[in-house]
Amino acid sequence: MFDGFEKFEVQTSDPEVKIVGRRGGKGPPLLLLHGNPLSHRSWANVANKLAQHFTVVAGDLRGYGESSKPRGYTDHSNYSFRRMAQDHVDVMAYFGYIKFFLAGHDRGGRTALRLAYDHPEKVSKTVFLDIVPTPVVWEEMSNMEVTLSLYHWTFMAQPVGFPETLMKGNEAFYIRTKLLSQGHGKGGFSEEEIAHYISLCTPENIHGVCEDYRAGATIDLQMDLEDKRAGRKIKCPVMLLWGERSHMSHQRLGPVEAWEPYLANMTRARALPCGHYPSEQAPEETYAEMRDFFIDAE
Questions:
Q1: Does 86 score more than 90 pLDDT?
Q2: Which of 40, 88, 152, 276 is catalytic?
Q3: Which of 56, 173, 224, 270 has a C-alpha 20 to 30 A away from that of 199?
Q4: CA pair distance 144, 147, nearest whole angstrom
């Protein structure tokens, strides 16, 4: 797991936040961003192979893993995808990477979307794994089956203290249920991985994750809607990957249709034989698709 990678801790432009992760490999830089309730470890099944072709940088989002977990601001802006994106722009700048490949799963995919919006000059190509844009998710909430599968979007976005208090003392139950059974496309984690994510589920982590979702229901949604209304699109080449057994298959809008208003250059779109966690459930296919997409001449 992450053979030959170095662990790093980088101070960002936010004095309250350091980002922890791992870097390894050779070749053009590739930034990998994980989802909830995970850490950069979620890329372990594909990172070593990707490192044969790319210099892989995999960091924990603020609020997650070993990265800093500051208290949320009243407007949740310090947990917005804009702020999370800036964290990782800072990380890549620390290593001297001016332009890089980018891939994000789940919350990391939403961070990647904002990074590509705010810093288009830095992103060569982007892969979004098993997500559709945030406004589309909220529109899909009128679909009962989707809403039940994505219950955490509304639960974790509740006012400060409510979800934190209810989750306190139930961390192991929450992580095990969240990753293995609750909702569409779950499973694929070893007992060692489950134990790792339970160990990360501290009060500070729970607060940070809830702040992430509070921002997703407010400031992040507003930013994405403003970009859509203004006709702004992601211009770099984009590949969409999603699990054929995930909640994506139950949405009224298919992934390609959902993404079209946001992308100017959708070059590939593939369903993988998995659920919501491609790098855990279909690592070989995930690696192969990402390798081919990023290696192809621009």
A1: yes
A2: 276
A3: 56
A4: 5
Q: How far apart are CA 30 and CA 103, in angstroms?
A: 8
pLDDT band at 134 (very low <50, low <70, confident <90, very high): very high
Please report whether residue 226 resides in a domain.
Answer: yes
106, 212, 220, 227: the active-site residue = 106
Complete edge-to-edge strand list for the sheet that includes strand 266-272: 6-11, 18-25, 55-59, 29-33, 100-105, 123-129, 238-243, 266-272
Question: pLDDT digit string (tens) for 64-80?
Answer: 999 999 999 999 999 99
pLDDT at position 249 is 85
Q: Residue 73 and residue 14: Cα distance in Å, rounded?
A: 13
- Band (pLDDT 50/70/90 cuts) for residue 154 is very high
Number of domains in the chain: 1
What CATH number does residue 212 fall under? 3.40.50.1820
Span 183-216, pLDDT tens digits: 999 999 999 999 999 999 999 999 999 999 999 9
Secondary structure of residue 220 in the 3-state scheme: helix
Amino acid identity of residue 11, one-letter, is Q
Task: Output the pLDDT for position 115.
Answer: 98
Catalytic: 106?
yes
Q: Rounded distance, CA 169 to CA 184, Å?
A: 25
User: Which amino acid makes up residue 161?
Assistant: G
DSSP state, residue 15:
T
What is the domain extent for residue 109? Answer: 6-295
Residue 1 lies in a domain: no
- Preceding omega of 255 cis (within 30 degrees of 0): no
118 is catalytic: no
Residue listed under structure tokens 């599968």: 149
